[in-house]
Automatic annotation (TrEMBL):
Any one biological process term the GO annotation gives: mRNA splicing, via spliceosome
Domain of life: Eukaryota
Cellular component terms (Gene Ontology): U2-type spliceosomal complex
Annotated protein name in UniProt: 1378_t:CDS:1
Localization, UniProt: Nucleus
Keywords from the named record: Coiled coil, mRNA processing, mRNA splicing, Nucleus, Spliceosome
Source organism (scientific name): Funneliformis mosseae
Residues covered by region (Disordered): 171-293
Domain CBF1-interacting co-repressor CIR N-terminal: 11-47
Presence of keyword Coiled coil: yes
A Pfam family it matches: CWC25
Compositionally biased spans, kind Basic and acidic residues: 191-250
Primary location class: nucleus
Length: 293
């Protein structure tokens, strides 16, 4: 028999620990992806149900929720000139901000002088006026949040005492993090602490190495036991098969020996049966065959 399973030396063998670990990681990753997909489907289903409830409420006659961001999808002014079209495109792309115009209180002279309406709805023939657009922008919660954040930042920056307090807090937080990472960095025992940490790391590495060696020994023991069982099974099967073949040979040999002895006793020159008796037997057999015909 062979000296071991040579496939265990291949990097693709499924019984190797690293291959089993890789398969387990891929399975865990697939499970995480499936959980995320299920969560997204659940959220989509909840949004769809909420939208259906709103539509049913609107059809029954209830109060329909007003969309506060419909001005974002409004159509631009009369684009008779290329300059006006480029100006509106800058506003839509975010290169220019609308809130600056609102804060300055300008009348948006960059738009067409003929039309007093700035954002006209695509689907609604009743266009929104400039005042309606301003009201919608002022009522936008995101705009209000950004505006309050900017005001708070501006007030903090303009206050030197507040800035000094913030800087001191940041310095304390950084020093705390540094001391947590290196508790004895400023003391004389830094070398001893480093040696202790190194010993701890060495012990952990030794434990991990011993655990890996123990796992490898267990795997090798399992493989040797399985190989021993396979060898015993194949040996037993070969023994049974050889035994059957011997019995068949012995049976065939006994039959052939009997036929040889009978033939010799009947037809050999040393046979005790004479020629007359043989002819008489042959005559009786031929008469029997003729009667049957």
């Amino acid at each position: 028999m062979g000296g071991g399973d040579l496939n265990m030396k291949k990097s693709w063998h499924p019984l190797l620990i690293k291959n089993q670990e890789r398969v387990w990681k891929e399975e865990q990753k697939a499970l995480e992806e499936q959980k995320k997909l299920n969560q997204l489907r659940k959220e989509k289903e909840e949004e769809r149900q909420l939208q259906e409830l709103r539509q049913i409420q609107a059809t029954v006659g209830g109060r329909r929720e007003q969309e506060r961001l419909d001005w974002m999808y409004a159509a631009g002014p009369n684009q008779s000139s290329s300059a006006k079209a480029e100006e509106m495109e800058d506003y839509l792309l975010g290169k220019k901000r609308v809130d600056s115009l609102i804060e300055q209180g300008t009348s948006m002279s960059i738009l067409s002088a003929d039309s007093k309406e700035i954002f006209s709805s695509i689907s609604n023939p009743n266009a929104n006026t400039y005042r309606d657009t301003q009201a919608k922008i002022r009522e936008d919660p995101l705009f209000l949040i950004k505006k309050t954040e900017q005001a708070n930042i501006k007030s903090i920056v303009s206050n030197p005492l507040k800035m000094r307090e913030i800087q001191e807090d940041l310095h304390k937080e950084r020093s705390k993090k540094y001391h947590k990472k290196r508790p004895f960095a400023d003391s004389d025992d830094a070398d001893s602490v480093r040696s202790i940490e190194q010993d701890r790391n060495n012990r952990s590495q030794k434990r991990s190495r011993e655990s890996k060696i123990f796992e490898m020994m267990n795997d090798a023991k399992k493989i040797s036991e399985e190989r021993k069982k396979r060898v015993e099974k194949s040996t037993k099967e070969e023994y049974e098969e050889e035994k059957k073949l011997d019995e068949d040979r012995r049976r065939r040999g006994m039959q052939s020996d009997f036929l040889k002895n009978a033939y010799k006793s009947a037809y050999s020159s040393h046979s005790s049966i004479g020629l007359g008796e043989r002819l008489q037997r042959h005559r009786g057999t031929s008469q029997k065959i003729s009667r049957e015909d």
